[in-house]
Amino acid sequence: MVMYVAVRVHDMVLDLIRYLSYKENFVTISNDDEGTSPHQNRVRRLAHQNRTMKQTQQDDHMDMAQVRTLVACDCDIQSWVLHPSFKLMRVLHLEGCRPPRRDWHGLKNLGILLHLRYLGLQNSSKAPWKFTYYELPKEIGKLKFLQILDLEASSIRVLPSSVCQLTQLVCLRGCRDTCAPDGSFLRTVISLEYLRIRIDNLDEESQRQIIKDVSNQSEIRVLCMTNESEIPKEFGGLRNLRTLYGFRVHMDMDGGWCSLEEIGPLSKLWRLTLHGLENVSASSFAETARISSKEHPEYLKLQWSRSGCMELRDEIQKQQQQVAEEVLEKLCPPPHIHHLNIKGYFGRTLPNWMMVVEAFSFTSLIILKLKDLPCCTKLPDSLCPLPSLKLLVIKDAPAIKSVGSEFQASTSAAFPNLTHLTLEGLCEWEEWDWEEQTVDVTAGTMAMHALGYLLIENCKLSCFPPGLANNKRHALRELGLRDLNNLTSVENFPSVVELDVFDCPKLKRISGLSRLHKIRIARCPKLEVLQGVPSLDSLLLHDTTMETLPGYLACVNPRFLRLTCSKELHDSIISGSSSECEKINHITKHDIDYN
Predict the structure, then answer these.
(1) I need a surface site. Which of 13, 237, 374, 401 has the fewest CB within 10 A?
(2) Is 123 in contact with 153 (CB distance < 8 Å)?
């Protein structure tokens, strides 16, 4: 696992570092067409950022033969070609750069970089263009000393077959779509510690060969099969494995594919994802995985297929639901798990280790996500005492109709460190029993007292319980309310700074948000009252069906209003002659558009 550590230094030390870096030409940084180094003739480390890279006269004057490192971030490289003098380069990293979609020859000289140890071709969310398309030339096979090939988000679909010649490769990280070239490309690569690749483009025999070769990599720590393909046998011998993503459970009785039993000996696993758990026919198979005995657990994802649930019918449904319940009971995580993700589980009840407070002893659990639970009728009762839980997501649980007081327990011990809560897709949820606590309770001792972000989406709640909406709750800053068809009012959230209210057709009143700074309202046609918001700075209103501006705009005084409305209303306001203008004339800045 890669860890990044930030270090603070004294200003005088920082000045010294900068001075020596400049004097010794530690790195040449270019943010435009001119470099910043005083020693352009002896460049060692070259960095480009946010510029158009191309072969220039300046490059020809620099001694490119001495360059050891080239890093380019968010650059246009459509006319750039790797300099033929870079023969001593050790590191080449292109991140968020923009090559042409086709016929790019920027790396045509890659084969001359015989000393290269690291090659990184990555995308970047910060780049001004949305996608980056790189290509790997077949000459990559000449890089005999290459140790790290990082293609994260590179859009490279298939590796060239010459990758098999990279015998010193330690890390091969493809993007989620990067496929293996053939079944034998790892046969001579014997030092791998990190492998992320797809193999579902290959036939069954080739897949088996790859897994057999992987099994011979005694030092491999991270294995990511991003396609969630079925893994052949010869896998349980990877005793040093720390991370395994994309393990798809297969119960083929002919013994040709890897089963949960082979997970059992992998006691050093830190991160594990299991997919296709609907294929497990008995809890005894789940028990062989020995999930609870892993030594250093950090992340566990347990996933059932949605199709496995959709195909259930009547008695078959009851039988398979019972099997799913028994299987999840046996897949109890280790006590020190940090992140647990359960998805697609179609049992009717959650396991005892989630429902019984005495049995739920995961004191290190920080993140819990429960998604796609079509048959569960009750939220887990044992979560509230968890001392480390910070993020809880419950999504797409349509069978839940009410949330009882036992969920949050209404005590000072309930969710003491929970900061983020998402309740989404509980589409039949109508009631939340959470009474306001006694007058002696302070903001620091109430249930969920640390809650800073709350999102509630797609349910039938008509109002919020007094235990949630009260003036003693001081930590809640962001509140998101979406697709709440029965909600009529939002009141008594004095600490909320940002509020999103989308698609609440019966909402009539918003008040008592004394610190509200920014509000976004979309498609809430019956909203009549917006008051008790003295700190409001920004109001974004989106409704393309409204014929007139809502009256509450005249009662608030934000600095900025962004309005998206119908073309007719837009034209009426822009003309300046409409009476609608009077409702917003007092607002300093407007941005009015139509859709």
Answers:
(1) 13
(2) yes
Q: What is the DSSP string of 447-472?
A: TTTT--EEEEEEE---S--TTTSSTT
Closest of 289, 245, 291, 295 to residue 268, by C-alpha: 295
DSSP state of 262: G
Contact in structure between 400 and 377 (CB atoms under 8 Å): yes
Short-list 399, 475, 466, CA closest to 432? 466
pLDDT of residue 483: 97
pLDDT of residue 45: 82
Which residues does 441 contact at the CB level (< 8 Å), separation at least 6? 412, 472
Please report the domains of the chain, with CATH numbers, ordered by start residue: 1-156 (3.80.10)
Residues forming a β-bridge with 257: 232
216 Cβ contact partners less than 8 Å away, ≥ 6 residues apart:
190
Hey, is 30 helix, strand or coil?
strand
pTM over 0.85: no
Q: Give the C-alpha separation, 163 to 181, whole Å.
A: 9
d(C-alpha 184, C-alpha 212), whole Å: 10
Give the span between the Cα atoms of 155 and 150, in whole angstroms.
12
Mean pLDDT, 10 residues at a time, over the chain (595 residues)?
60 82 68 49 77 62 73 84 84 85 78 92 62 75 93 85 92 89 87 88 83 80 69 68 83 63 84 89 87 87 72 63 92 92 93 78 92 92 88 95 82 83 96 77 76 96 91 92 96 95 96 95 95 95 92 93 93 85 89 90
Determine the 3-state secondary structure of 261 from DSSP. helix
Q: How far apart are CA 215 and CA 206, in angstroms?
A: 14
Nearest one of 260, 254, 255 to 273, comparing CA atoms: 260
Q: Which pair of tokens denotes residue 227?
A: 């396609």
Residue 62 has a pLDDT of 55
Tell me which DSSP letter residue 334 carries: P
